[in-house]
Amino acid sequence: MVDAASSLPLRPPLSPTFHLAGATVPFAVELYFDAETDDAVRRLWEALGRRGLNTRGEDASHPHLSLVVSDGHQPERLREELAGLNWAVLSRMRFAGIGYFEDPGVLFLAASPTVELLELQQQTHRIVSVRDPGLVRPFYRPGSWMPHCTLAMPVTPHELPYALEAIGPGMEIVEARITGLGMWSLADHEPWKLELDGIEATDPTVRVVDLRDRTPPQRIHTE
Prior knowledge:
This protein is α+β, with helices and mostly antiparallel strands. The protein has helices at 35-50, 77-83, 115-129, 160-167, and strands at residues 17-19, 22-24, 27-33, 64-70, 92-101, 106-111, 148-152, 174-185, 192-195.
């Protein structure tokens, strides 16, 4: 079943962008998964690739979820600030369906948008955008961001039924463990990565949010 997010526009691909002041290389802040989830995504890449679809498995990309993509430079100061966020509350993530961005056509695993995930994305956006807020790509700004892990792109509407057939009708829910946070750019041969596996959560409360409701998320505390 195609996710309701199919009506949402697509973020631009991570590719070089040029400004009047000169060339800049975009960078992304990404979350990485445990080995089992990584393998599960790669198997989907392989199944889609056998159908002739363009997947991320053709390059050095790892299965990931991008929190922010910016066309600004990658300042060193971001690393310390990002490492200081409370990533322990996001030890796990659920991918419960297949989604499709219609234009220009991206097939993806849709992540459940928990309060913790949305709050950390907002905090990441604040850190990245504090100097050059206009350089964060529009679909990675709070209120517009849809959490997902890309499977294939571009996928035309004509190819979509074949892509879904390649994945299969009974795709299981993927319970991912978040093991790393990283920054990556096309110009960075040694991307920065922060290991998150094994840190203990300080707040186990999880609440799934309907992204169609654009009001700011509120944390629910339990006894």
